[in-house]
Each structure stands twice: as structure tokens, then as C-alpha cells.
Input
Amino acid sequence: GENVEQHPSTLSVQEGDSAVIKCTYSDSASNYFPWYKQELGKRPQLIIDIRSNVGEKKDQRIAVTLNKTAKHFSLHITETQPEDSAVYFCAAGPYYGNNRLAFGKGNQVVVIP
Amino acid sequence: NAGVTQTPKFQVLKTGQSMTLQCAQDMNHNSMYWYRQDPGMGLRLIYYSASEGTTDKGEVPNGYNVSRLNKREFSLRLESAAPSQTSVYFCASTGASGGVSGELFFGEGSRLTVL
Output
């Protein structure tokens, strides 16, 4: 089955700087890649997702890039703010798969004011 | 709209006891899911229900049973709890239809401790 790995496990950035989290996946058949944000003690929430028919997607300060050849995708957060501090989970799976996704173990992002 | 509601939020069980986690959504979603979240392990799918009347195993189904009671409700049952089932459990639903993967709407989570 699909195996998703996230790097680094913890990332500290100064407020205003950019943060990049990278995920690798193993199954070349995966074509749907969402990112979820989970604040401390809260539920996970979708922040952005991408399908394999596009290489990049952007929504305000966040963007996701996908490299299907290398089987990795990355989350980019620009102009980080304290409210960006959270655990970020990437996931991979088939778009026509009823959310049968494999999640990564999560990245803790800490934005230092 | 309340979204996805789970009960109970906290539960302590002794090994061998049984319990049911309840989940209800008011978004008229077809598909519902149960995940468990363990430290450093991400989210792992236990069972899901693509539509009312159907259920399927996920990545870690052993030790669990589910019931899709109606379109709104999807319950998770632990018949004989084990310490390895200590975890935070999340119910989720999606409005995506036709088998398409889409945004998951999660409940607040249920923290279960098995002694």
C-alpha cells in the first residue's frame, strides 16, 4: 500500500519567514494530495489539496507543489504568522478512492514571534 | 449547522470492557469515516462507509466494528477493549460523491484510554 513520509518532523521559523514541508509517497498510482492543519487540541482541517493533473496550486499565503516523477509534494507557507503554528499532515491516495488516503506522521511547525 | 458531532469526548475503560463511540453529521454527506490518531503516527483509517448501508475496512480494522445506522450516524464499537486501543478517535464525513476523494470534515475527537 501507499507509504507517505514527511520531513522535517519539526520546523521552527521566525514570524514573517517562509516554511516548507516536504512529503514523499511510494505509490505512483496516487493522484490526490491533500494537506490538513491541526492546531493543538483541535480537529484536523483541510487547507489545500492538489490533483496530479496540475503541478502547483496556490491559495493566498499557502501553496502546494507536486513532482510526480520524483514522487514528492511540498507545502509552502509564506509570510508566516503565529496562527500558522500547528501540526501539518500530508496525505496521498487515489482521487477516485473514497478518501482511502495514507497520511504522513505530521510536521510540527512553530512560528516564533 | 453543528457539522460532525462525536460522543463521548473522553472515556476511560478497563481491558476487556466494551463501548461504542457515536458520530452524527448534519451536512447530508454520503460518506463517513473513523480514524485513530496516535502520537507520531498520523491519522489511520479504521473503517469507512461510502454510503448508507455499506461499510468497508480501512488500514487498521482489527478489534473494531462499525454500524452505519442511517445517513447521519456512524458508530464505532470496541467489543473487548485493549490497551493498544488507547488513542484519539476522529469521525469524519465528506460531501464528495461518486467515490471521489474530497475534503474531510472532522469531529472534535474522542480521547479513549484503556487501562
About this structure: The interface with chain B takes residues 1, 4, 32, 34, 36, 42-46, 49, 89, 91, 93-106 of chain A (CB under 8 Å). Chain A has a mean pLDDT of 95.
